[in-house]
Amino acid sequence: MFLKVQLQWNVIIPSESLDAKGLALQKAIVVRLLEDFSTKKATKDHGYFLAVTTLDSIGEGRVRQHTGDVLFPVTFSGLTFKIFRGEILEATVHKILKHGVFLRCGPVENIYLSYQKMTDYRYVPGENPIFMNEKMSKIEKDMAVRLMVIGTKYMEAEREFQAVASLEGDFLGPV
Amino acid sequence: MHHNIYLRSSDFLFLFTSIYFCPEFLKAKCLMNCEVALILERKYEQLQQMSDDPVNQVSQVFEKSLQYVQRFSRYKNPDAVRQVREILSRYELAEFELCVLGNLCPETVEEAIAMVPSIKSRGRVHDDEAIEKMLTDLSLIKKFE
After folding, report:
1. What are A132-145's pLDDT values in tens digits?
2. pTM value?
3. Bridge partners of A75?
């Protein structure tokens, strides 16, 4: 699910850039904010950081004692992406293995759908393995599948989310 | 308060605008794939104008999200997108519910309830007729897109 959030971050401007006034300083702050935003990638609370949509305010700068840098509190709105337990969404098949299927959804690279969570589908081995059910409905690489997210996990070190999914439910399966 | 901030340098022009599709968007906390597609496409266009190499200007997260929403948007036309939000906003739906319905476009009442079970939970005012009407209104947008 894509979310719109309002955040307040501290943007640090090195002392060298502080000769600039007005618009140039504002630009330096915005540029820095965008860099920080891009590098941050994701947090557990907000999900993945996509884009800054509006700059709402820039507060008064505070000088940091030891470095001479100035810290500006910046309030802005941005887009993020997060997946939730219980959410039904569409994902694309990335990899098919004997015991299950790996799917992707936006910036989430790792959604795992176990064979145990799609009990009417059977693994069909081959050069391009697939899962198939009695009605000849296929799950194959690059196709879209509607699934339910039954668990999520945030990996702090990698700054990424992983999830576990299920097809046990009405109107779930290949799209 | 939202600002229009224009920033120039010898190399590029930064343009930040508040993107209003309709009044409801201002208060929106969740966004549908089709709404996100319009926002990210516009951002990408701005970057293309500014730089020779727009691909390196965007994060992996941005790129993957853009690909995703382009594939999974049921509505492409900005007016249609606006109408979807407007129609769904008439029903007492939580932000999350509204977006799941707008993303998955269920065709029947049964499917809608399967996608968003909470719309039928105790205390909610949605009867099948109201859900049916909502789905019919949505399907009309699709026809005229």
Report:
1. 999 999 999 999 99
2. 0.87
3. A8, A57
